[in-house]
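(Structure overview)
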Amino acid sequence: MDLTNIQIIKTLSKKFNISPSPLSGQNFLIDKNILNQIVDRSDIKKNENILEIGPGFGVLTQELLKKSNNILSVERDNHLAKHLKAQFKDNDSIEILQKDILKLENSEISSYFIKNSTTISDTKNYKNRIEYKGQDSAEFISHSKILNARIHLSDKLGMSELSDSNYRIIANIPYQITGKILRKFVSDKASKPKKMHILLQKEVAQRVCASRGKMNLLGISVQLYSKPDILFNVSKSSFWPQPKVDSSFLQINNISEEPIYDISNEKKFWQVVRIGFSSPRKQLHNTLSAGLGIESQDVSNILREIGLNQKIRAQELGIDDWIKLAIRINPNSSE
């Protein structure tokens, strides 16, 4: 079935009583060339575990199944999930879960892929020892049980403990949850994917990859834990219904549990950064002075000492600058 054919998508929408909603980010990809680029640039290996978010009618899902043996597709919409389960009912390489991805714990996703691991060939010999409740009940095993399962598998296979980064994300992200998805899988601490390839709003992708002069909180929160890069842009005409903005295909590599920068006090770092961006149009020394209860002149002196203009604004600093600033503003903090 050619799911890039707009007439087929419209027919399926009518059949499953779906009225694509901009509020739900239901913009279906109908450009076969872009679809092929997504798959090619994602460089999928056969034994990789893939999490797909918001598969819709399954246009990307079909292609992922040609590349991977183990896919978990999470779809919130009940009608779309029903269609997907029917479409892929005979394929053992995919599990369709009807659930809001934002209500699914990262550890539960990691647990699923441990249970269904294809990255270690012998794992299947032991997976029946791991308790799992199927997709209809939408119940995943607890993280504590998975830790025990990990230890069991490690002992049997003569390996070190299996990593939480045992999956990657490839998805056309619903626009309205883009920021939450990035925070959940990049900025939060637990059970992150090893990398992400996602289609999202062009403006958001640019913010994620911003450098000095256009830096922002979202960019810092992603770049602090990973290496993001825009691979290519996608016209809004490649979707139905057509959104109001263009999109970009974003690659996020080397996702780390901890900051990839040397930060001695992460809590203090974020306190200074968030206050700094609370009034981005104001000069930074005024914003930090008001937010931290420090004399404006003292902040200006610190800015000068670390090589920054005293009239600088928050978006003009890089992550290294924020680290230096946080240290100098309160070098003895133990918060």
Q: What stands out?
A: The chain has a mean pLDDT of 86. The CA atoms of residues 236 and 243 lie 6 Å apart.
